[in-house]
Amino acid sequence: MNISFEQGEKLDGYIQLELQPDDYVNDFKKELNKYSKQVDIKGFRKGKVPSGVIKKMYGKQILSEQLLNLASEKVMDYSKEQNWNIIGKPFLEEHNLESLDPNNLQGHNFKFYIGYFEDFEAPLLKDDKSVPHYKIQVDDEILNKEIERIRKQNGEAKELKEVDSYLSDDILDFEAEEVTEKEEAVEGGIKENARLTYDFFKDEESLKKINKLKAGESIVIDFPKAIDKPKEDIVKNLFQTEKPAEEVSQFFKITLNKIERKEAVPLDKTLFDKLFPDKNIETEEDFRKQLTEDIQRVYDNETKKFRSLNLQLELLKTTDIPLPEKFIEKYLQQMNKENEDAQETEITEERIKNELSGIKWELIKGKILKENELNVTEEDVKFAAKSGLLQSMNLPESYADAPFLDEWVEKSLKEEQSRKKAIEDAMNFKIMDFLQNKIKVEEKEVTSKQFEEISKNLNDEFQRGF
Asked: Minimal CA–CA distance to 16: which of 34, 3, 35, 32?
């Protein structure tokens, strides 16, 4: 066997390998014997098929698979000897297996393209830099809005034919009929009943028309513009049709059936007991206090999730890991070939950048796990699976000890894909717990509006990649 390396661009290159018959002949013979004991061929007793017959019928296939596996194995062994940190799998660029002849064994050449990364440091794990942890203040404005929402949510709907002015949560019940720009009905077009709250409508021009609308009257609006949503979302989610969005008109005739307005219930013990049956709340003051605690709990969970994302962002921003972009581009091209149903086929700079960010984060996670000897136990996997089920079923954490959930977790972990995801989630939990204890945090109080803006900026940074 001969093996050599040819440097390409920085962090990628080509491994050239030559396998001689002495490298594979013994294994080839063993594989032929193995096949002869396993295959069932008419005219021969099972397990007694001569190896010569096997060679004639399956020899080329067996030899081809054996050579490819052996070549891949030797390339990986060589990479380890060179102390390269290989990314993904090497690509087989060239080979001469077309001339394969199981009756005339000869040397075979292979050329593999590899990408690798060099050892790196994550400064954030070693220095004293802190990252912010936000605490959302539950102020009177937030609390009063939530109380008003709850009062209306638990009230009865009153049907109206018209209103002097709309409230943001008034429900418009209407028929939507697809029309042309000239307001003519589209043959075979969409004609569906729908319900939207008034605050769904954003466009000023459309709102002027809607504000004058009475039950039984009609207007024509540019629907995507009116609610500031892509036509695809409207067709699929509001009208729930599989009709391609590009075949649907922008314009719809809206005929108002009725307006529904919720009447707010009194803020009294009846409402207190309905919302908090185990708390025995007597006064509005105690109700506001309990509700504040509940809202704070929701906000704290939200900021905890944000903190994990922020730690990930800071690690990505402060950790320098040069990566082989040409190799990554080839990897994406290979993914497109292997996945015929891939929705994203164009290899854009943005897609390459996002892939690089994803690889970078996986490498950082691997470093954290290895250097800190973080191991995932079976209990960790079960906890991750249970958390995933609670989230998918939209159940509160109080259901975590429910017997039926343990049964579902056990069943779920018997499925290969579910178990694989649970292990990955468990690793992520373990890493984030480690980071939250390792990296200093600086608590900052913010309003909910400020936190929305901070979250938006963080998501924008993730979208841009690193």
From this structure: 3
- d(Cα 414, Cα 419) in Å, to the nearest integer? 7
Number of Cβ atoms within 10 Å of the Cβ of 221: 22
Helices 284-318, 416-438: axis angle to 10 degrees equals: 90
Token pair recorded at residue 109:
């050449």
| pLDDT value of residue 76 | 93
pLDDT for 97-119, tens place per residue? 887 888 888 899 999 999 999 99
Residue bearing tokens 């608590």? 443
Tokens matching residue 335: 């993914």
pLDDT of residue 115: 93
Q: What share of the chain is helix, strand, coil (3-state, %, to 5)?
A: 55, 20, 30
Residues 155 and 167: their CA atoms lie apart, in Å, by 15
Q: What does pTM read for this prediction?
A: 0.70
Rounded distance between C-alpha atoms, residue 150 and residue 148, angstroms: 5
- Percent residues over pLDDT 90 in the chain: 59
| Region at 442 (left for phi over 0; alpha for psi -120 to 50; beta for the rest) | beta
> In this structure, what are the phi and psi dihedrals at residue 279, rounded to the nearest 5 degrees?
-100, -15
Cβ 173 vs Cβ 193: under 8 Å: yes
| Mean pLDDT value of segment 157-183 | 93
Q: Where are the beta strands (DSSP E) in 227-318?
A: 251-262
